[in-house]
Design goal:
- The chain has a five-stranded mixed beta sheet, covered by helices on one side.
- The chain has one domain.
- The protein has 86 residues and is of the alpha+beta class.
- Strand 1 and strand 2 form a beta hairpin.
């Protein structure tokens, strides 16, 4: 489980919508730990998380030939992130 309390809160809120952790990976160049969720969050929850966790950086990325489209949040203070497929 993530060390970041804010990332933990996001994971719990996503699980409250029926989402689940798919995997946790490490060894990224700028992120110590990335939690990958099974499904995207609802648009209402995405907006609420951006409002409720302003200390985190929210981001989106388009699909590439090697990666799915994602969006998520990063706690740069502890180099942890959570991602949701789009």
């Amino acid at each position: 489980m993530a060390d970041s309390i804010a990332i933990q809160r996001i994971i719990r809120r996503a699980e409250g919508e029926g989402n689940a952790i798919m995997s946790v990976s490490s060894g990224w160049s700028r992120i110590r730990e990335m939690t990958h969720m099974v499904a995207d969050v609802s648009e209402d929850l995405w907006i609420a998380l951006q409002r409720d966790e302003p200390q985190l950086r929210s981001w989106t990325s388009d699909a590439t030939p090697h990666n799915r489209a994602e969006r998520g949040f990063t706690d740069e203070g502890v180099s942890e992130a959570v991602s949701f497929p789009r």
